Amino acid sequence: MRTLTPVLLLAFGASAGSLAQAQGCGSGGGVTVCLTATGTASNVQLGWTVSGTVTSLELYRDTDADPNGRTRIAVPASSARSYVDASANTGMSYWYWVKFTTKAGSYNSGSANATLGTACTPTAITPYINANGSWAQTASATIMTSASAILGPQPTSGGTWSWSGCGTAGASREQTVQPPAACTAIATYTNSCGAKTQQAFSIKVGTWTSTKFGGGGYVSGLVFHPTTANLLYARTDIGGAYRWNQPTSSWVPITDGLGFGGGEASFHGVESIAVDPTNDQRVYMAAGMYTSGGNGRLYISGNRGDQWTYVALPFPLGGNNPGRAIGERLMVDPNKPSTLFYATRTAGLWKSVDSGLTWAQVTSLSSAKLTQDQVNALGMNSAMGVETVVYDTGTRGSGSATQTIYAPIAPDYVQTAGLASNLYKSTNGGASWTPVTVPISGYHIPHMVRAADGMFYVVFTKETGPGAGGPARLYKFDGSNWTLLNSNDSAGYGGVSVSGTGATTRIALGVTNTWGSFPGQQIIRLSDDGRNWREIAAAMPHTPADGGFWGWPDDVEIDPLNRERVLHVSGGGVWETRNASSATPSWNEVVDGLEETAVLSLATPPAGAMYTVINSLGDVGLWVHTDLATKPTLSPRTEWSNSFAADMAWSDPQYMATIGVVLGNSTGYGMWSGDGGKTWAKFATYPTGVADNKGGEASIAITARSKAVWAPGNSVPSYTTDNGATWVATNLPAINTIFSRAYHLVADRKNPNKVYAYDSGGHWWGTPGKVYTSTDAGHTFTLSQSSVNAGLAPNYFGNTSLAVNPNAEGDLWLADGNAVYHSTDSGTTWTKLSNFASIFIGNPWADVQGASAIALGKAKAGAPYSAAVYVVGVSNGVWGVHRSDDGGATWTRFNDDAHQFGGIGVIAADQNVYGRIYVSGTGRGMLYSN
C-alpha cells in the first residue's frame, strides 16, 4: 500500500470564525482517489474524486494524522462521491481517509483534516455598481433604457456566488445587466465555511423621451426593403435616420447611439441609405452634412440599424446640401451584395467590392474630382456630381455581379469631367461606360427607377431641389427608345416610383415647388403607365387638415408589397395614403416618433409654474410645453421663423418673452406674453442691432414683469423697464463682428437686481472670454477682473454657456467650451474645475468641446449642494452629460452610449423633478430624461 503525503489547501478569504479545509490524494491498482474535508457549523462535509474503477469504498476517521487506530464510519456505494459526517464533536479536529478497493487490492487516499465549528460567521458583502462608466459603492442605480450596468460586489475571492433577478445568471461575481424595466438582483455569497450572505441590488430604468411635436424637418428620402413587408427607412437632412415600426405605426430613431456623439453632429446629415436585397438585417447609411465639412462616413449595420460600425469614406457628402433628395446615391448590387457603388457629389463614381469597407474611384467613367474652388464657384447649387446608380436586373442573389448599370450625371460634373451625356451605361459591371443619348440635355436626373419588366422611368428637372422649379419631364425608357409621359414647364418633378409591369404599371410622380391644396393643384400624380394621369394629394382629405404637405415631395415611394400604399416626403415629415386607387385617397401625416425640429435654446421656469419648458426652435418658432406627451399649442405663431432665445420672470413666470427672426422677410422680432404663453404681442420697439443681426447668436434676460435686457447679435445689449416701449443701451463694451457672437445674459433668480453678461470671444481664435456683473437690473455692468485673470478660452457663442443656481444668490456656473468655472460671489472670483477638458487632435481648435453647456435643476434629496449641476462636455476623456450633486466636487456621467443624439447643443434642467433635464440633439427635437 502506498499513501501520498496530504497537501493542505487553505481557505481563501476566511473570516475569523471560518474553519480549516484539507485535501489528500492516494493511488493504487491504477486508481487515484483525492479526498477533501470541510468543517461547517453543524457537520463535516467530505468529497472525493476517483480516477479509475473501484469496486468498493470505506470511510475512516481518527483524531490524529496517524492511521493506526482509526475508525470506520461509513461504507458508501462505489459510485458515491460525497458524505456528510454529522456525528463529529464540536470543536474537535478530525482526520479522514477513503479506503478504496480495486481488482488489484485495497488502498488509501491521502488524509484530509477538518474541524466541526461552533459557528461559521457570514462574510459581509460590499456592493458596487458600474452604471455609467465608473464604479460606485452602492446597491442602487438608475440606467437609461437599453443601457447596461455591471454589478460587482466584494469580496473578490474565497467563496462562491450565485444570482437571481434582473437577468443575472451563473456563478460569476460580476454580472452585466440590461433590464427593460426596474428590477432587483439578489447576490448570494457562500464563504469557505458554508455561511451564506445576500445582497439586493435595485436597478431603476430611466428613459430618454422625445417631446411630442411631430416631424418638424425635411425627410429627404424613403427606402423600402424590396421583399420584407413594412421594412422602411427614412433619412433626414440634419436629424439622422429612422426605421418604421409597423406594430406601433411609429418611427424608431436609429442614429442616437455610438458613432453619433460629441464632435459627430455632422453625421446626422444622412445623404443616402441602401439595403441589402438578399439580407433584410443589413443596411448601409452614408452620412456627412456638408461637402465643406470634410469626408463622410459609411455606417454599416447587421441588425437593421440598432447598432452601427463605420468606415471613413474618401470623399465628402452633403446630406443637408441642395439636391439632398436626389437619390439614392448608394446602391447595393442585388446579385452580388458585397459590391456597392456610390455616386458622389464631387469625386465621380466609386465602387467597393468588400461590403463598403474599402473604396476605389471608377476611373473608367471619369477620374475627375472637383476642387473646393470649383465647388465654391457653384454657389448655393452646391455640387451634384454623379446623382444615382441604377442596376438593370430583375434577379437577386445569383452570386455574379450585375453587368448592366446606369449612372445619371449632373450638369456640373458633365462639364467638369468633359462627359458627353447626362446618362452613362455599363454592360460589364462598371469596367467601361458609354454615353446614352437623352431626350433632353443639361437637366438633372433626380430619380430613375426600373419596373419589374425592365422598363425605366426617368425624371428630368432643370433645378436641383428641394422644391425645384420647372421645367421638368418624365420619360419612359426601354434601353433604346424614350417616350414622353408627362411634362411641366412651371413646376419641377422630384420623386417617382413604379409598381407592376406593362399596361398595369402604376406610376406615382411628385410635383415640386407647388404650394397649397386646391382643385387643379398638382402635388402627387398617379398614372397607369402614363396613359391617364390624376392628382391624388391636392384637395384630398388630410389628417391633420392643416399640415403642410405640399412644396417638397422630392421623394415618392409605392410600397413594393402593397401598391395601395404611397408615401411622399415633405418639408415637415412624411405623408401616406393606403387607398391610392380611391377617387379621393385619404392621407395621414406619419410622423409619430419622428422628431426633427432644430432646438436653438431651452428655458425652464421655477417650480410650480403652469408650464414645463419654453422651447425655442428653428423654422417653426417658439412653443410653450404644458404636457410633454402631446404636441404643444401655446405659441406666438410667428410661422416660418427662428426663435433664438426666451426667458421668464422668476418671481412671475407667467410673464415671458422671446426673440428671433421671421425667415420669410428676414425681419427680427421680439414678443412677450403675460399669461404663460396663451396670448402674445410684439414689443412696441426694438433695441439697436435687432434689424441688422438675424443670426442665432442672441440672448434675453427677464428680471421682472415688463423688465428685460436684450442682447442682439454683434451688438451692445439694451434694457427696457416699460415692456419694450423704450430701450436704453447698457454700458457693456461693443463686440467685434469678426465671427458672429453676442453676450450671454442671465438674471440672478434670488436677486433680480443682479444680471450677468458673458462675452465668449467669438471663436477659438477670438478674444478671451469676459464676465460682467450688474447690480441695477442690467442697466450698467462692471467687468469681473477675476474672469480676465482666469484666462477664459475664446470660443464660439454656441459652444459656451452661463447659468445661475436659482437657489443661491450670486452662484454662477460658466462653460467656456473647454472647461467649467464656478463663482459663488456674483462673479467677483472664479474657480476653474479640473474635471473637464476638450479633446484636441492635431489642431488648435477642439475636436470635441470639453464643456459647452450648463444647467442647474432640482437638487437630490439630502445632497450637500442646493442644485443638481449638469454639464455637456468631456470628463475623464468621455463625452456626455455629466452630473454633480455636491457642487462640482464629484461627477458622474448622466447619459450613456446609447443616448448621444448626434451631440447635445442646448440643455435645461427641471426645477420640480430631480434628474430631469431637457436637451437638444442634432436635428432630434427636444428630448427629456425620466
From TrEMBL:
It comes from the Bacteria. It comes from Roseateles saccharophilus. Residues 1-22 form the signal peptide. This is Dockerin. The lineage of its organism: Bacteria, Pseudomonadati, Pseudomonadota, Betaproteobacteria, Burkholderiales. Belongs to the glycosyl hydrolase 74 family. Keywords: Carbohydrate metabolism, Glycosidase, Hydrolase, Polysaccharide degradation, Signal.
